[in-house]
Amino acid sequence: MSTPTPVQHAYLYAAARTPFGRFGGALAQVRPDDLAAVALRGVLDRAPGLDPARIGDVVWGNANGAGEDNRNVGRMALLLAGLPTSVPATTVNRLCGSSLDAAIMASRTIESGDAEVVVAGGVESMTRAPWVLPKPSRAFPAGNATAVSTTLGWRLVNDRMPEQWTVSLGEANELLAERFGIARERQDEFAARSHRCAAAAWDDGFYDDLVVAVPADLGATELVRDESLRPGTTTDKLAGLSPSFRPADQGGTITAGNASPLNDGAAALLLGSEALGLDLGLEPLARIAGRGAHAVDPQDFGYAPVEAAGKALARAGITWADVAAVELNEAFAVQSLACLDAWLAEGLGDPEVVNAKGGAIAIGHPLGASGARILATLAARLRESGDRWGVAAICIGVGQALAVVLENTGSAR
Prior knowledge:
Elements (H helix, E strand, L loop, with lengths): L10 E7 L3 E2 L9 H14 L11 E5 L11 H8 L8 E4 L5 H14 L5 E9 L5 E2 L15 E2 L19 H12 L3 H20 L31 H5 L23 E10 L1 H7 L5 E10 L9 H12 L6 E6 L4 H13 L14 H4 L6 H16 L3 E8 L3 E8 L6
Parallel strand pairs: 3-4, 3-5, 10-11
Antiparallel strand pairs: 1-8, 1-9, 2-8, 5-8, 6-7, 9-12, 11-12
Helix pairs in contact: 1-2, 3-11
């Protein structure tokens, strides 16, 4: 009778992402499978001693899958990146959390001993997301057919879904603003900080080693930094924008300036066992120390990271008092502030540790890529500061959230 493989730790060894392009911007002509291949190739270039044939799996996130990202975009990406055809791949869809879900799956695969190295990541081209037509149940219906955009949000909704569940993402967060009393001014201040911190991080060179350029021969216009970033953004400028989901005289607070934009981009992570690092002479960036998933009513999705992070912390055996860095995906300023307030009440010491290098409001939120981006940013922040513990969390449409705790294995703190 064989001896079971002991559970081992999973480590993050490398990360790479494309710059995030604006909707209709510099990456609009680049197919999502090509964007994914660029990120995948970029992360492998950071481990030059790794024979790609050793990769046990590629787990890739994607929230759409209705267009050029169909038919398992993870497998398409590795083929386009020139990896051996023997390397398998799967594509997962947990909407905005897809690539963080991919990293979670990859870490479990390593911990179980099913693979020594797994590449995880995700991609989204919100520009190139197609319009779709529902297929008729019988030939030649007499009525009109309406094309539906697959860029963002609910589409082709089942009539049996309760109406309160299927409100727009923006309206769901206006409900959060009402529930927690988070004013427009505070949301605008948070959004301006996101741009300010992201611009400073780029100026300081923080993102230089995390970002790989998209080649012009794939259709990209030269893009050096994240395209949605507006370094001159101020609270006063944001105050002049009109609400996007409710009129101001009806209490609307959410604008195009205090919510994440629509974006194109890809991000990749290289995860492996301790033995892999020793074999290749690679120092891990961090250890995957805890994971958490949580679900709530669909319209409350923005607040779901509160409990997801709590579960991840408990599984890592730490509390908020131990946490020195947080990367929370900024889908909307209001939901980010609601989560931050809850975490401060639970023992997080300093609000400034949240998104200190900017967040999705400034950097962008290409849905399937954002989870991998925040995990990579968190690891880099911990390495820069020398602190030990960090949390990455992301809210997910239809009422879910994911969180991961990272341990900086090189920390002396």
